[in-house]
Specification:
single chain; alpha/beta; 2 domains; 7-stranded mixed β-sheet; 3-stranded mixed β-sheet; 29% helix; disordered N terminus; disordered C terminus
Length: 212
């Protein structure tokens, strides 16, 4: 059940009625249904995207930890999977900007606050910007599923450090790869400096629900 706060307007053909139920006012007018919320909203569609973004933020797409949970959110067939990523965005937070629904299809716009990114050369590119991502969903068996992964993992500073430290430990165990370990150690140092400059990160979710 979708819980809405603030002003909600519902438009239905040939009817005009004001309903007051638990301080939720519903105006029935016109030919289609439109939902507007003046406050934050939560819907099954938004919650699926939030689960995906939270798992991604915590490194599920780069470490394999909790990837099974993320896989449950996808509308893929059994033989589909994500590619092996060699570039990663480090983000401070994200928020849901908008949700649009049309029948069995939906689109959610997510805004990320990007802090930096790095690839397999282990060089940190500190470039702060806001990035909007469109997430497409489809309704299958009465459940909303994400149609395709977001291009490149978007991970927190802590997830990046955990991933890189684990990689260093694996490489050290092999007794080789000294040059690669040195590059990763330098990247870790640079990400720690990035963390000191950005001590507070959080996630927010705002509501703006409308039709396609």
């Amino acid at each position: 059940m979708v819980q809405l706060t603030g002003l909600v307007v519902i438009v239905v053909t040939g009817m005009k009625k004001m309903i007051n139920a638990k301080n939720k006012y519903v105006l029935l007018i016109g030919a289609s249904i439109l939902l507007f919320s003046t406050g934050a909203f939560s819907s099954p569609i938004t919650r699926e995207v939030e689960k995906y973004c939270d798992l991604d933020l915590n490194g599920a797409r780069i470490s394999g930890i909790n990837y099974a949970e993320m896989r449950k959110l996808m509308a893929w067939t059994e033989d589909q999977d994500e590619p092996g990523w060699d570039c990663f965005r480090i983000v401070a937070d994200y928020k849901i900007l908008n949700e649009k629904v049309k029948g069995p299809s939906a689109k959610v716009i997510v805004e990320y606050n990007v802090l930096a990114h790095f690839c397999s050369n282990y060089e940190l590119d500190r470039n702060k910007y806001r990035e909007e991502i469109s997430v497409d969903l489809v309704k299958k068996n009465n459940t909303w599923k994400i149609k395709k992964y977001i291009l490149y993992p978007r991970i927190s500073i802590e997830a990046a450090l955990t991933y890189l430290n684990n990689k260093v430990n694996i490489l050290k165990g092999s007794g080789e790869h000294e040059s690669e370990i040195s590059k990763i150690d330098q990247l870790i140092t640079n990400i720690i400096k990035l963390k000191q400059l950005n001590p507070s990160t959080h996630r927010d979710s705002l509501g703006d629900k409308s039709q396609l």
